[in-house]
Amino acid sequence: MKKILIQFDTDSHPSTFDRVVAVDAGVDELFTYGDVSPGNVTGLVHGAMFTRGPGNLKNTAIFIGGSNVAEGEALTKKVASTFFGPMRVSVMMDANGCNTTAAAAVVAAKQHLDLAETSAVVLGGTGPVGQRVAELLAAEGCMVTLVSRSKERAEQTCDAIRERTPSGKLIGAGAASEEDSVALCARQQLVIAAGAAGVCFLPAGALSTLKSLAVAIDLNAVPPVGIADVGVTDKAAEHDGTICYGALGVGGTKMKVHKQAIASLFEASDRVLDTREIYELALHVAGLK
Prior knowledge:
The chain is of the alpha/beta class. The chain contains nine helices and twelve strands.
């Protein structure tokens, strides 16, 4: 029986990136829909649920994407609530690459650090990727300083993460300038920049001043990058005594995780792959579990 992946995208035009990855992951048929919302998705889900018997539903799966992560999250909840009993298919949510990117970044850091003994700064921590990076680090036992331009917003994001990770050690902090960001990174072992494209947090020369920093990861590939001393293609490259990863350096792992996650959807009919589940896959892909 053919493996069918149904792509629900909240944007008008379904992502070509996600479509290419789905094909490369080995799906037999790919159905794509744009402008999908909680208000119009029910019929599409029913079409996935009721066309194959319960024993064959593992051969159908749903991928939820789009550029707006909040809309993707709302769509995922609606899709999951439509299932009942054995009438369900596996679902993966990776709107704007939020989960696969965050998972790949934390896996990169874990290859060099004992995260349970690490203090980390997440710059751009209230964005969709930053929030997930902070959550995964907190779940690993890391002491996390989550940074935003607004301290209030940073603290609110920390509170939301604690609801999912009660044992998480998080501090919300505000940084209005590059100088503020540099100061917050002092005495930290790990920094991950996960801000919006074109935002530089740490200017050129900053790494050489951060003597305790062991690993720096920048997830922005659009110039100016988030950490000026980190090259986009850096992959475990050393600069000023710090191991560095750029967006493309992390991207190889992200792509492997994305493909593996899609392939795993067809192993059962009841999987829901979100942040934690995708991170578990990433650990296996990296040989860390």
